[in-house]
Amino acid sequence: MISFELTEEQSLVRETVRKFAADELRPVARTTERGGACPRELRGRAAELGLGLLDVPEAQGGAGLGLLGAALVHEELAFGDAGLAIAILGPHAAPAALVELGTPEQAARLLDRLAAPQARGAIAWSESGPGLPLGGFRTTARRDGDDWILDGEKAFVVNGGVAECVVVFAQDAGTTGWSGAGAFVLDGRGEGATAGARCEWLGLEVVHAAPVRLAGVRVPGRDRLAGAGGFVVGAQRMFARIAIANAARQVGLARAAYESALAYTQDRVAFGKVVAHFQAVSFTLAELAMEVDAARWMVWRAAASFDAGAEGALLHAAQAAVQANDAAWRVADHGVQLLGGAGFVQDHLAEKRMRDTKTLALLGPSDQDHLVAASCALGLTEDAGAGLPISALQPVVT
Hints:
CATH superfamily of the largest domain: Butyryl-CoA Dehydrogenase, subunit A, domain 3
CATH topology of the largest domain: Butyryl-CoA Dehydrogenase, subunit A, domain 3
Low-confidence stretches: none
Number of domains: 3
Structural class: alpha+beta
Mean pLDDT: 90
């Protein structure tokens, strides 16, 4: 039987995080955006609540919530503030790379680096400059005895320069295409790794991101992640996990935009009538509510499919990401419109949410998710790099 009811534990997690987001994130959303940094005490509070390795099993030092439980957390945090929802979760997307591209031994060992309360992780995928038609990376990895030497430059790296653990995607020297690609785990503050100037974005300004330059960085051979089922399959599953997390954040952001618009239009009176009671406005509000719910159900289905190891998990993740990105933009856009002049001044958060949802969509571009959905529909998921973003053509904020 299909059930849309959460377990008692999931409901408790949801309510706990919802209160944390309402009491501690929403009130400081504007000030932290202007300051461009997430307060250390907020990251500490998130760590106290166990909001670190959300979907990593408890045996590996994680919260053991599964992807569905993690999606509940991401939605509630983003309901408080989308930027802080990303900034306070120190491990960021690194666990997805370790779980999907590492062996069980590697994942267990390397996840220890991210288990500490204030630990931060990063993944470095994108590169600047002209594209590579066959996929792969310009950043190279050269064998030197039992080690690898990395050289190159990565762009748009969330936690770049501040993360203790960074998963860098690079090309085995002398190879081309995805078949010669691999992932390498290194100390983000180690010798040879240098971060550039912080990225200035349209939205999510509290999130720290920067390019990272690698010059002769030495990585032990045991810290190269090849993927149990091959690099392409592992990378596809990694991006699916990231897509589900970002889709859940979009749902939370959209819900916040909808509820703010609903409250504003119910309080405001024009021409002797509550604004929300005008038919055009009431129809719009009804459509926005449906957009939020539809996106949420698709995110839950994708997360549950992934947790169950269902065959259609990749497809469901891509569909949820596309739906949530599109829905969040429509809801945030209408959220500005329904507030009228108040929608685009900074007395309200409406304009911030519109900027945040557009920037959040870049964390996992809809074009990539459309490609995954199309590849699944055509039975081409094993095709070389189907749906993987070309590192220098499709910037992915990672």
